[in-house]
Each structure stands twice: as C-alpha cells, then as structure tokens.
Amino acid sequence: MAKDPSDKALVPFVSVDHMMGLIHHLGFETMIRGIADRIEADFRRWESFDKTPRVASHSPVGVIELMPTSDGEMYGFKYVNGHPKNMKEGLQTVTAFGLLADVSNGYPVLLTEMTILTALRTAAMSGVAAKHLAPKGAKTMAMIGNGAQAEFQSLAMKALVGIEAVRLYDIDPAATEKCARNLEGTGLRVVKCQSPEEAIEGAEILTTCTADKQYATILSDNMVGAGVHVNAIGGDCPGKTELAPGILHRSTIFVEYPEQTRIEGEIQQLDPDHPVTELWQVIAGQKSGRSSTSEITLFDSVGFAIEDFSALCFLREAIRGTPFSTPLDLLADPDDPRDLFGMVMRAGPEAA
Amino acid sequence: MAKDPSDKALVPFVSVDHMMGLIHHLGFETMIRGIADRIEADFRRWESFDKTPRVASHSPVGVIELMPTSDGEMYGFKYVNGHPKNMKEGLQTVTAFGLLADVSNGYPVLLTEMTILTALRTAAMSGVAAKHLAPKGAKTMAMIGNGAQAEFQSLAMKALVGIEAVRLYDIDPAATEKCARNLEGTGLRVVKCQSPEEAIEGAEILTTCTADKQYATILSDNMVGAGVHVNAIGGDCPGKTELAPGILHRSTIFVEYPEQTRIEGEIQQLDPDHPVTELWQVIAGQKSGRSSTSEITLFDSVGFAIEDFSALCFLREAIRGTPFSTPLDLLADPDDPRDLFGMVMRAGPEAA
C-alpha cells in the first residue's frame, strides 16, 4: 500500500535457511576459516573495542542476555538465551540472533540468525586458541560431550590445527552415535569410546563440552597428562564447571576476557587473583603461548562479544552477491525526517 | 531447500509497512488509547518489573542504546539510536526496533519496527501523564516544536485528555505548516503561531518537543503561569534541556524513573536531591497528582523501557488475526536439539 521503502530503510536479513545455504555454498571449513581469520584480526586490535559486560536478565529457569560491543566504526550485539530445561521440551537450550549497525548514523546494516553462527564462531574460537597453544603437530582430539557443539569443534580443529582423528565420548551413547554419523565423510577418523579415560588415550587436545548446569568433574586430575592442550567449552556460567581444580593448578590458563571468565569460566573455582593470560595478547605477540612440550595449556572458553562481532562482520562480507539474505523493512524512513506522521498517513488505503 | 521450520522457530515480524497498515486498520486514536491503557496497567504494577538502566554505546556523533526490561513472564528490549546530525543527511535522528521474548524458554515471540511505535508510545505516555496531572477540562494545548512528535502528541492529548485545539509554534515555519497540514481533518482546531508567547495564550497544557542538543530555553520563567501542565518531551539526554530553571522551581515535578531522569531530563539542572514524584505512584493511587488549580505540574518525560514493553505487549495482541505481520525464520530449531549440525547438513542441496 505504501511506496517502496528506500535502501537505507531495508536491513539485510539472514534467516536460518539462508545461513544453512551459505554454509553449503562456501563449505563448512571455508566458513570456519573465514570466521577464525576475522577473530584473529579483531583480537590483534583488542584494545580498539568497547568491552561492556553482558546485560543479563535472570529468571528461575534461565537467562536472556544482550552482548554488545563496538570498534568505533561498527556496533554489534547478540541476543542469546540459556534455558537448560528447554532440551526436555524439544527446544534449543540456546537460541540467538544478532545485529550489526553503522556507528556513524546508528542504522542497522545486518540482522541474522545466530544459533548456527554462534556454533561456528565458538568452534572457530577454540580452533584459533588451539592453533596458538596446542602441541605442534597435534593429530588427535578427545571430544567429551557429543552434543550440539561436538561436530563444529571437531571440524574446526581439523581446519585450523590439522587434527586427523577425534575420539568421542558422551554419557549418552545416542549422542556419540549421532556425532559419529554426522562426521562420516568429513575426512576425520572417528573413534567411539566407552569412557572418558578411553577417549583421552593418545589425544593431544582434550575438548570438554557437556551440558550439565552444575559443578561436574568431566576430567579428573589424573586424566590430564603433561603436554596436552585442554579446550574447556562447557564451563561457561556461574555454578557450571567441568574440570577438577587440580588440573587448573597444573595448567597455564588462557582466557578471553578475565573480568567475565572469573565469573563464568572454570577459573571461578580459583582465587580471584590466580594468574591467567589473555589470549589476545598471545595472538598479538605480546605474551608467549605454550612455552614447553610438557606444559599443560588450558583455554577456559566462555564466549565473548568480540567473537560475535567478528562473526557478524565476516557474515556481512560473505553474503555480498549471494542470494543468502533478504531485505527487511525494519526502519521507518520518511522523505522528510520531521514528517513521520505524514508518512504514516500517506500509507493509508485512501491515499493509495 | 530445507524442510519448513517449525512454529517455534518462526517469529512474527511487524515491518514498517505492517505498522502503518495496522494504524489505518485500527485507527490512530484507538491505537493510542490501547497503548495508553497498557502503559497505565503496567505502571500500576511498576514494582513487578526489572528496571535495568539502558546500555549505551556512545560515539562522537551519536549513541546506540539497548533498553531491556522484564516482568518475569515476558522480556522486551528496544534498540534505539540517537544521531542529531542525521537529519541534515536526510536520515532519521532516531530509529528503533524492538523484541518481545518468553521468559520461560527464552524464545522471541515478536520482532517489530519501533520508530513509529516509539512515536505512538511517547505520545500515549504524555497523554497518560496529562490525564492524571493537567487541569480538569483542559481544552487547549500549546505545541512548541513541530517536528516528528508533534502530531502524535496532539492526537494523544485529544484522545486521552479531550483537548480541542492546538497552538503550534516552531522556529522553522515549514515545520509548523507541515504539522498543521497533517492535522487537518482530525477534528482538532489548529492555530499557527508566530512566537512561543503567542502559542501559549490560553493553553492549559504546554508541550515542548524541540530537537536542539544543547541547554536551550524554549520556555522562559515568565511564560508559565499558575495552573498549567507542562509536558516536557525534548529534554531527554545529558546536555539537552528546554525549560528555564525557574519553571522547575515553581513546579511539582513528576518523572518516570528518577535514576534515569536525573541524568537525562530537565531535572539534570537541579540538585540531585530535589523532590520529584514517580508517576507510577500517582497512577497506582499511592501519591496525589495535581493538588490545586493554581499548581504548575510538570511531566519531565525521557522515555523508559517499561513504556516500550507496554507498547510491544499491546502490539502482540493487536496483530492477532490481522495480516500485519509475517513469520520470520529467525531461530534454528532442529528436531533433536543436540543435532544442530545434522540439521545444517540435511539442508544441503544433495539432501534435497
């Protein structure tokens, strides 16, 4: 009924279907590598970002969070929920969407699903950390917890670190079956294991990504030998950890953003002044990563807004010239900015 | 290429075009009244809301803000920018969109344009305040500043307070012409004035809504006589006020949320402990509003997240059974929540 909105009023929207189409169009590993490159580039200029803590709205059954950040040119935020009980109701524990806007005029330039994109960026982040911290020539990863992140983690470690085999374990054998089936034909050698102890045999990288919201011990102290890299994904909110404290005390610990990780990560189990290294400083060459073949390195991953920003910026470039977005009529854009009312009135049926 | 997403994955989206269609479908005043009713109902239960301050990202040219709130059942937030220099570039100074989500599972249930909806809720809020504070039987409003809010304010005061005439003034006569033209046929008697002094003649309600981002004096002390209601809209961020301090000292001041108004409103000119009344307490019957015919009442309006929440909840109801929304494929929703990767893989062209 109204005349077509102008270009500035239309925001490119990437639906779930578009996101899946883009992954198939680019290829999974290309997409992971693209996001990883962008994360590394953004971590190198870490100090140019606004680092606001997430804004959380808690309820007895879950949390809804807004995670904003800005580099002064672009502004991004992610909406994400966490509802552990959702899975029992056939819903996703975590769903997300995100937005990128132009700081110079405040107009959004991208709206996108971010459930899948978050899975990709979380895996890309783990891969970037492992590239800098894991023992040279690592070929085998133990993947403990075979839920929604497991395949993403496995393929990111293949794409970014060059692993050739994954050893899967989950308390629910059906999850392991699902993960093994999904990884068929990806080029990874997959070994299904009956216990965490079996899964870690010969693995240089130990990834933990389980879903229990409680202090659990997925890896006990005696399971983690000298020289490995521990990639701890699942300890990511207050009251949820996966590693025995002994492991933390024997490890060199790397984090995204200490202020957030001390509350949400594995290191919530440690004294608030326990030394940690910020991963961006390793990537920027300001601090060393792994210092010896016998060192245990630990990436205590909780997920930070800058990683989402990197993924959003990657996506904005990646969809150019593809059919994987549609224009969304999200912004009112009257010819005369002072005449919002007139725009509404002229859209009436009698004015058509 | 993929199978259709399930209902839970689809979020109703109200575009700018839909919003304009809905306004014409319901009628302007019905819509204002509906939002006002919802604001009053929510202000009556003020204490049941989470009141987070807005999360602002400032740049030299503007601000991008997220305004979240929740009543424990629903969660809402608004994205809104403020870029005063946009108007010179033919862009909106303020654009906005908003979202409503179910607190019990974190799933969004409504995404909507909010530039127009914010104009409606701001006017509805002013109308609600005037209904409780303006002198009984007020028939005339002076509307000083004839920009994007002016028609909305005028029609809200007609719908909610029963005014019959508006007296328009703007430093730019073109804005006054635009506003007068738009109000033709609405049933309001419109008088175009050459000065603020002319505009306030005989007016029981004085509304100021100008755009200058500076300490301006739109109303000087001697212009405001006994018994009027001042509806101050334009003083809404640090460094931007419209009223001479003398007016504030002679008025009984009503605000939405003191913590925010003391930073952003007219009362940023006063001592931080200057007494103010929270409007919700008047609406809930806990505090009195106007106490005499000679009292000057002042609503120092800055806009608060709960008003956006009210508008979002109104909209969610209002679009039911209408064509004024489309389902947006925003949320990934695999059949098995743990099998996000499998969902992506099965969406591939070879699986179609």
UniProtKB/TrEMBL annotation, chains A, B:
InterPro entries with a match to the protein in the record: NAD(P)-bd_dom_sf, ODC_Mu_crystall, ODC_N
TM region positions: none
SUPFAM superfamilies: NAD(P)-binding Rossmann-fold domains (SSF51735)
Lineage: superkingdom: Bacteria
Alphabetical list of NCBIfam families matching this protein: PRK07589.1
PANTHER family assigned: KETIMINE REDUCTASE MU-CRYSTALLIN
Protein name: Ornithine cyclodeaminase
Source species of the chain: Roseivivax lentus
